[in-house]
Design a protein that fits this description.
The chain is mainly α and 214 residues long. The chain folds into 2 domains: 58 residues, Arc Repressor Mutant, subunit A (Orthogonal Bundle); 153 residues, Tetracycline Repressor, domain 2, CATH 1.10.357.10. Helix content is 72%, strand content 0%. The longest helix has 25 residues.
Length: 214
């Protein structure tokens, strides 16, 4: 289907259908080729739009990807809250393992967090940036409360700090844990062993260290 096969969306529900189609196209392209593969031309073509029509729904390629980030947060939060709720009270190792596996199970979220400051917050409005910042505040707050429920001897503020710090670590670690083909080949050399991060190992270890500090 192409944009020329239907009339311009005027009703809110019709506009939402178009937005959802563009986000679905962007998600597929981002998962396949990262941000470089999810340009506006490619997104428009995958969704059956013209590039000019994309601007009716998103101000830029970056705003499309921020839309994906909102969706990724929506998928991530129920998972991590459920998994944290299943942990035994006081079991910091189980909490760290649950947090790690939640990120591993939702790889689009850390990939987007890794490019938030460098890419996504460019070429968008102040209000678009403010909206995603509010979602991130909500995310770390909810995770912090979920952690505090299992570590009642700690403060909510310390647990929120832990969640926010973990997010910062994930954003920095993820690109290094998923390097380009050439970089991965170089990192296989023994001399670079110390530079090879493992999400499963290192994220859980960092989370446990942070939990032990509060």
């Amino acid at each position: 289907m192409t944009e020329t096969h239907f009339q311009r969306a005027r009703k809110p529900e019709e506009q939402q259908i178009r937005r959802d189609a563009l986000l679905a196209a962007a998600a597929a392209l981002f998962d396949e080729g990262g941000p470089e593969g999810a340009g506006l031309n490619a997104i428009a073509a995958r969704a059956g739009f013209t590039k000019s029509n994309v601007y009716r729904y998103f101000e830029s390629r970056e705003q499309v990807l921020i839309g994906l980030l909102h969706e990724a947060i929506d998928a991530f939060l129920p998972r991590i809250e459920r998994d944290l709720a299943a942990c035994a009270t006081g079991d910091k190792r189980a909490i760290a393992a649950a947090g790690t596996m939640a990120f591993v199970a939702n790889p689009r979220l850390p990939r987007l967090l890794a490019i938030l400051a460098s890419t996504l917050e460019r070429n968008v409005s102040v209000e678009t940036i403010a909206a995603i910042k509010r979602r991130l505040v909500e995310m770390v707050r909810r995770i912090g409360v979920a952690i505090n429920n299992k570590l009642p001897e700690t403060s909510v503020e310390d647990c929120v700090w832990t969640a926010a710090t973990v997010g910062t670590f994930v954003a920095g670690m993820w690109p290094n844990a998923h390097p380009s083909t050439a970089a991965a080949e170089v990192l296989e050399r023994p001399e670079f062993a110390a530079l090879r991060p493992s999400v499963d190992r290192d994220l859980e270890r960092v989370m446990l260290a942070l939990l032990n500090s509060i």
